[in-house]
């Protein structure tokens, strides 16, 4: 037997052991995730695939072992060699500022027949019929909504109430004496402290005009042009619980959204107050009280990319995060953003969020020109109308996104392959469908949350 055949046969033995161990490990991980379908299929593959390689070794099937070994080498090349990246899937720089008055949350706050209501729809008559659609529905956390759960909804509203208490703390007086701390030292401290406070990932970027809304759309400052002297921003993410998100669009999603908006608000208010105490102007941008478009700021700070569903996609948690931003006039040390085309290419191919969207608000199409730039655009009116019907902020796209899988060895291995190879990205889409299903069912509510029926008694 030649040396090359001996190596091929030995390779088959080693790979059969690795493959068996990997599939059993995957099955255990799936079981821990309460994904019984995926766990069963991984075990089934463990019974079918490794024996092919093992038998080639056991019976010294030289030609078969050589073919299988060559196949393994080819797979290794496809997996480890970077290629197939598309250069320009989406554009980065918006040509126009967004007016906060046009976003759905601002339009939701318009009271029928008030002066503000009449003024807005006189200028935007095309939006009136669209918005009357969501106004006919029960509304977020409303009693007659589809997923009404008294305990969960009131818990979520309690978190939103707590966020509201930060309203007068997002900005404030600046200490008269400026610290002489260096930019690099303060930037490092802010990042380290943010993580100590509970942030997941943190980045810093220089602010551009397109980061700011053109006008305020909510609260007492409604309609005021936004003018800021702030030149830099620190952006951070907080993680949303996999367990709470997995049951979306049921009531746990609005509980978790509210809780993480609260966590992001708490951290942002602390950072802003700290900066002001150091003698630098600073403002926290938190739920319901923004001057900035947080996803754009977070993207440019290197925290992720904006994907098909219009949310920030982070490398390890996908869209399963909430954002906080603090802007300041102190020239912080910025991070260099490296555009992750592999993530955008995966979004281009996956389309699972569009498949599962209850309101069909997410496009299956490639990015198109919107206001002069190439990007994905969701139907915000139909999306928000479903929120008002469901009573929750849905989150179905977030729950089903393959990037939302837990941050562990198995899923990080898949993410590594996705980042490296376009062929692996194609394979990963089909693997996710095979294990989890193309239209996976929503998980059950966490056991500690009273169920739908009990909550209404």
UniProtKB/TrEMBL annotation:
Protein keywords: Iron, Iron-sulfur, Membrane, Metal-binding, Transmembrane, Transmembrane helix
Entry protein name: 4Fe-4S dicluster domain-containing protein
Keyword Transmembrane helix attached: yes
Coiled coil regions, renumbered to chain: none
Domain 4Fe-4S ferredoxin-type intervals: 336-367
Keyword Membrane: yes
Matches recorded under SUPFAM superfamilies: 4Fe-4S ferredoxins
Domain of life, per lineage: Bacteria
Entry-linked InterPro entries: 4Fe4S_Fe-S-bd (IPR017896), 4Fe4S_Fe_S_CS (IPR017900)
One matching Pfam family: Fer4_7
Residues spanning the membrane: 6-31, 38-57, 63-83
């Amino acid at each position: 037997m030649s040396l090359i055949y001996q190596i091929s046969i030995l390779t088959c033995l080693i790979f059969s052991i690795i493959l068996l161990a990997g599939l059993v490990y995957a099955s255990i991980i799936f079981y821990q995730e309460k994904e019984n379908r995926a766990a069963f299929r991984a075990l089934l593959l463990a019974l079918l695939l490794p024996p092919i390689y093992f038998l080639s070794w056991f019976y010294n099937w030289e030609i078969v072992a050589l073919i299988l070994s060559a196949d393994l080498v080819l797979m290794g090349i496809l997996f480890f060699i970077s290629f197939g990246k598309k250069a320009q899937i989406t554009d980065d720089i918006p040509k126009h500022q967004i007016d906060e008055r046009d976003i759905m949350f601002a339009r939701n706050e318009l009271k029928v027949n008030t002066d503000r209501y009449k003024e807005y729809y006189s200028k935007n008559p095309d939006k009136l019929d669209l918005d009357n659609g969501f106004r006919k529905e029960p509304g977020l956390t409303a009693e007659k909504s589809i997923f009404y759960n008294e305990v969960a909804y009131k818990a979520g509203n309690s978190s939103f109430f707590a966020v509201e208490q930060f309203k007068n703390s997002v900005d404030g007086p600046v200490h008269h004496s400026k610290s002489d701390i260096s930019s690099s030292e303060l930037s490092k401290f802010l990042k380290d402290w943010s993580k100590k406070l509970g942030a997941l990932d943190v980045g810093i970027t220089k602010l551009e005009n397109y980061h700011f809304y053109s006008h305020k759309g909510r609260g007492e400052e409604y309609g005021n042009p936004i003018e800021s002297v702030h030149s830099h921003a620190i952006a951070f993410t907080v993680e949303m619980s996999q367990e709470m998100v997995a049951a979306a669009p049921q009531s746990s999603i609005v509980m978790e959204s509210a809780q993480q908006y609260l966590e992001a608000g708490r951290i942002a208010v602390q950072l802003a107050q700290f900066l002001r105490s150091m003698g630098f102007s600073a403002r926290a941008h938190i739920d319901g009280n923004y001057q900035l478009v947080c996803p754009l700021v977070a993207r440019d700070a290197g925290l992720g990319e904006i994907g098909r569903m219009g949310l920030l996609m982070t490398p390890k948690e996908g869209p399963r995060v909430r954002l906080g931003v603090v802007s300041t006039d102190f020239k912080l040390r910025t991070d260099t953003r490296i555009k992750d085309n592999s993530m955008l290419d995966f979004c281009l191919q996956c389309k699972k969020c569009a498949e599962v969207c209850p309101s069909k608000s997410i496009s299956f199409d490639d990015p198109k020109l919107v206001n002069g730039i190439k990007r994905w655009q969701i139907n915000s009116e139909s999306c928000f109308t479903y929120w008002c019907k469901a009573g929750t902020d849905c989150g179905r796209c977030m729950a089903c996104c393959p990037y939302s899988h837990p941050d562990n060895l198995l899923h990080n291995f898949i993410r590594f392959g996705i980042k490296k190879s376009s062929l692996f990205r194609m394979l990963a889409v089909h693997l996710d469908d095979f294990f989890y299903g193309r239209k996976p069912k929503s998980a059950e509510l966490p056991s500690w949350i009273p169920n739908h029926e009990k909550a209404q008694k």
